[in-house]
Amino acid sequence: MARRKVNFFDEVRTAFAELADDLRLAGPEESERIAPSSHYKGARVEYRILLDVMEGTASCDVEIATDTVDLTVDIEPLAIATGVVEKRGRISYSARNLNQLQKSLRGQADYVRRVHPFLADPVTAARLMREAGAREWIRPDQS
Questions:
Q1: pTM here?
Q2: Alpha helices by DSSP H, 4-48
Q3: CA-CA distance, 122 to 127, in Å (whole number)?
Q4: What 3-state class would DSSP assign to 108?
Q5: What is the rounded CA–CA span in Å between residue 101 and residue 113?
Q6: Phi, psi (degrees; rounded to nearest 5) at 76
Q7: Are 108 and 51 in contact (CB under 8 A)?
Q8: What is the pLDDT of residues 29-46, one digit of tens each?
């Protein structure tokens, strides 16, 4: 049996296509700079799907910008902070083969669908991002 060559970007597009359409997200913007990544953008939020080829993992970061700071956090702790997920460990990050990659991307896309409505209000979004342990940077124009 011939092995199918895995294309990360094709798999992300497949997993996120319906979601991006439903949530009116622009993208994907794709890049192989540093690590393969695919980005979907909404009005106040960006979802960044990354492939770590060294670790064999795929992850989804959520990014928002307020007037003063940029916040970034992994999708799972944000799902917990919003209350749509009870505890860690319910999604996969493994991307060591095609089946694992697809499972991880489907699970992360499901979390994006659940979390997205909570990010519409900028004040609520920033609070939830901080509760989830977001990394925070002061915006360059605010220093």
A1: 0.90
A2: 8-22
A3: 9
A4: helix
A5: 18
A6: -65, -50
A7: no
A8: 999 988 899 999 998 899
